[in-house]
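Table 4 source record.
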Amino acid sequence: MTSLLSIRRLRARWRRWERRLIFMAGAFVVGLAAVGLAEASDEAQRLFGMIQAYWPYAAFAMTPIGFGLSAWLVRTVFPNTQGSGIPQAIAARSFSTPEERRRLVSLRAAVGKVLLTLLGLFVGASVGREGPTVQVGASVMFEAGRLTPRRQSGLILAGAAAGVAAAFNTPLAGIVFAIEEVSRSFETRASGLIIGAVILSGMVSLALLGDSSYFGSTGAGLPIRDWTAVVACGMAGGLFGGIFSRILIVTANGIPGRIGGAIKDNPIGFAVACGLLVAIIGFASHGQTFGTGYTEARSVLHGDQIGWQFTPLKFLATTISAISGIPGGIFSPSLSVGAGLGSNLAPLFPSAPMGAIVLLGMVGYFAGVVQAPITAFVIVSEMTSDHHMLLPLMATALIATAASRMVCREGVYHALAKRYLKVEEAKPSP
């Protein structure tokens, strides 16, 4: 009898350790996927730039065709991979069965998200890789947690956090993002999973990419006499970010009238048209609006001049890419638009360091888009290591969020997640 009890205890312990090992392996894979996607994304943009340098008119063919192909693959091969991927991760947590969740987060979705995000960047789409990394992370951890269905919701949350942490090399931002944006609550049971996943995936990112700030440190500070810039960047960033989110939500829910009907009846043609518009904007901006916008944001952050037209053109290119129906995130492009906005506002504050105003513009616009003020100032401060700017960034994020809600009452990710919930709940069970 005693030996039988001992065997049962050993089996129970092994099952617990088996689940832990699977979880650790999943977090490790998320880190590898994030680093791999980051490197591949840079290479895809580099190849597009090489083609553009050889033939400046290449985008007029590549971008529309690429947009159309991506939209077709989303509808036929990789369903539920359109957009950033964050709404899918949020919606997946609301379902109660693995079958329902698998429609939004799965290995198939992860593979499709990676391939189609790279395709978008290869053809010049104004998209980011960070949102897709969230869906990839959630998908990997969901598959890792198939043996523990009771904890799948927490594992999806942990995967999303790990994706952000590894993508930006910002562990604290990953945790804050998971709590503030994905779950919108602090879940004690899931906190250990989140922190563990962030640590493991972050270690992979550090080992492969090194300990470096995403945008590099500016060393800028903001004197108290220049705090009027906080209000200006917060209000401007919040209003423009709210307009961007409002457009995405309205478009996703369906535009009324003939135009909306035409888009619904011919989504592939609409994607092609969007690609052509992005190509035209890219040509008009001399290539500055193509891709993530990382290079432009980093250069202006460190004092390089950029034309005033970059901000509205990048805003348009990102908006059109986001509503086209192709996979791709909005994190990096939003930070790029915000950097341009800060650059445009900087002449109004001649005594303030240029880098400081650009940082305020970045956090203001980003907070306006996501309406998650804590995530906004934490992620920008971690990405630049400018912790002495923390108080102005906090204030800007709060002002921007309030201004954004005057235009768009609900955060874009949760509004889009509700749409996935409605669609998926309407489908018959397999």
